[in-house]
Write a structure and sequence with these properties.
alpha/beta; Arc Repressor Mutant, subunit A; Rossmann fold; 2 domains; seven-stranded parallel beta sheet; 11 helices; about 20% strand
């Protein structure tokens, strides 16, 4: 093993509406759930943005991170939100945090991960790069590479890398998702199946203790499955918040991943899983 904020309102969505209703029902049923003003505002923030960091909350409320962690732990025990290392989110496995919020979440960590991934990619390599804010940071970190051949179903990546020196970019066909400019569908899968590349750089929304990788969109997962199958080496770029996070759709398993790039040591309970999967772990300090 080698160790090498959310802000502003987001569009109203039905998930927020459902969760607010569930919160009201829970408070009606359970007399233990009496929120103080800070806890109520904390929940409102999570419901609005999908995810919020402990540091942002501590700064906003002018209290210590320990105070915020106590609030988050209690609200999590009441099943009103889900706690993660460094933050909290809505307690759902069926809907991801908004793309705009994910762009800001753990941004420094994602940049460190991206720099480390890029250092393992040689010039002249052929690559798949799929959807996600971390993989987009990897694309940004590859800006000094020469002669790359990139195949992507991510229009953000294509737009970015098409301006790199001697970089050839191929875009899959398919359906463009308006919120993140990702391309999904059978046309994308069929296009990817034509190639066998040196490296696939992928993301995932969830890494479970048993090594299962998960995401939220079935169509996105099917494209990712094809990418994994048609790459000689697979790199997974994922920040520490993805460990133990709930997500709905199975994407694959760590045994299909050659190297995991993250920003913090993996949970101790995953040591055996990683050893059995023969997955190298690189930690961007």
């Amino acid at each position: 093993m080698e160790h090498c904020r959310p802000a502003g309102p987001f569009p109203y969505n039905t998930a927020t509406s459902r969760h607010s209703s569930a919160l009201f029902d829970a408070m009606t049923r359970d007399p233990r759930i009496t929120l103080n003003a800070r806890q109520q505002e904390l929940l409102d923030w999570v419901q609005r943005d999908g995810f919020v960091t402990v540091d942002d909350l501590a700064t906003h409320f002018d209290v210590t991170p320990q105070t915020i962690r106590r609030d988050v732990n209690w609200l999590s025990d009441m099943n009103l939100l889900r706690r993660y290392h460094g933050g909290a989110s809505l307690p759902t496995s069926s809907e991801n945090v908004s793309y705009t919020a994910r762009q800001r979440m753990f941004h420094d960590e994602k940049r460190r991960i991206a720099t480390l991934v890029a250092s393992h990619v040689p010039d002249q390599a052929s690559l798949f790069i799929n959807l996600g804010t971390t993989t987009e940071e990897v694309a940004r970190a590859l800006n000094r590479h020469r002669g790359l051949h990139v195949i992507t179903n991510n229009l953000n990546v294509a737009s970015m890398m098409s301006g790199y020196p001697e970089c050839e970019v191929l875009i899959t066909g398919g359906i463009v998702r308006p919120w993140d400019k990702g391309i999904v569908g059978e046309l994308a899968i069929d296009f990817i199946r034509q190639f066998k590349v040196d490296f696939a750089i992928i993301g995932a929304s969830s890494i479970e203790t048993d090594g299962t990788l998960r995401d939220f969109d079935t169509r996105e997962v099917r494209v990712a499955e094809a990418i994994i199958k048609h790459a000689r080496t697979v790199f997974l770029a994922a920040d520490h918040s993805k460990f133990g996070r709930p997500a709905l759709v199975r994407l694959g398993h760590l045994s299909q991943i050659d190297a995991l790039f993250t920003d913090a040591p993996t949970p101790p309970e995953m040591a055996q899983t990683l050893a059995e999967a023969n997955t190298q772990v690189f930690v961007a300090e």
